[in-house]
Design goal:
mainly alpha, elongated, 2 strands, two-stranded antiparallel ribbon
Length: 270
């Protein structure tokens, strides 16, 4: 049975490179795949094949061209960090402040649900958080988030009474942030504006979230223009200019990194 890298190589050679490699060429590509993202490598191969840039080149030149495209795609991913940073930090902070304010200005507003879970009760049995009504859907979601953060047996003890909303949202997945806004739509819709519906918000947030997750897992993302447009619209609605943040981040003059990467070090890739 072929290994995982051999299965991917077979796909590459059959669908993109269109030649039968020698054993030595297979070995060199297999070593490459052991050190790179197969998703970006697949995208690099597709781009190289579509551009006809591999036609007539030797194997070594083809490999160099493919790896050149691969590393350019890594650099393109790096350009997206300011966008996802701005979007993610803004909405984590908005939820942290919004829910603390909503639930009687309690910094650890989720504590009654956490207490119920630790006593063996369902989160949806909690009707109020510090005198403020909480829907069953919202309570259930908050319970699921607590389990996600502290584990199925709540053994991690990460959400004690000294933890505030900022720390809570920092421990959330970005999907949790989306769902906390959705289950508290009456709290956040005035901030987002009446011209966007709940479904519209979820669709735009999900597009950004899924693109962010793909980029962080080193996958190519199609239709990035639509993703950036969605991020920009949602951020504008909460008073955050993506253009301003992006320009400030990318235009900042930073000191050289405090670490040194050796030039010309040994690598199995070239």
């Amino acid at each position: 049975m072929p290994t995982a890298s051999q299965r991917i190589l077979l796909e590459f050679f059959e669908h993109h490179l269109h030649f039968t490699p020698t054993a030595g060429q297979v070995d060199r590509f297999e070593r490459d795949l052991a050190l790179v993202s197969p998703y970006l490598m697949r995208a690099a191969l597709k781009e190289a094949a579509a551009s006809k840039g591999l036609v007539g080149k030797t194997f070594d030149d083809q490999r160099a061209a493919i790896l050149g495209i691969y590393y350019r795609k890594v650099a393109e991913h790096a350009q997206l960090f300011p966008i996802f940073h701005t979007f993610e930090t803004a909405f984590r902070s908005i939820v942290a402040v919004g829910l603390e304010t909503h639930y009687a200005n309690r910094s650890a507003w989720w504590t009654p649900i956490r207490t119920a879970l630790r006593a063996g009760h369902s989160a949806s049995t909690v009707p109020h958080l510090y005198g403020v009504a909480v829907s069953k859907d919202a309570a259930h979601l908050i319970g699921q988030i607590i389990y996600s953060i502290e584990g199925d047996t709540l053994a991690k003890d990460l959400l004690g009474p000294t933890v505030d909303g900022y720390a809570f949202t920092e421990l959330c997945d970005l999907s949790h942030i989306q769902n906390l806004i959705a289950t508290h739509w009456s709290v956040f819709s005035p901030l987002l504006g009446k011209s966007i519906t709940l479904n519209g918000f979820k669709a735009k947030f999900r597009a950004v979230r899924e693109a962010r997750n793909d980029i962080y897992h080193h996958k190519s993302v199609a239709r990035m223009t639509n993703v950036v447009t969605s991020a920009e619209e949602l951020l504008n609605r909460v008073g955050c200019s993506l253009a301003f943040s992006y320009d400030k981040i990318t235009g900042s003059k930073v000191a050289p990194p405090p670490f040194r990467v050796a030039v010309g070090g040994q690598s199995n890739i070239f």
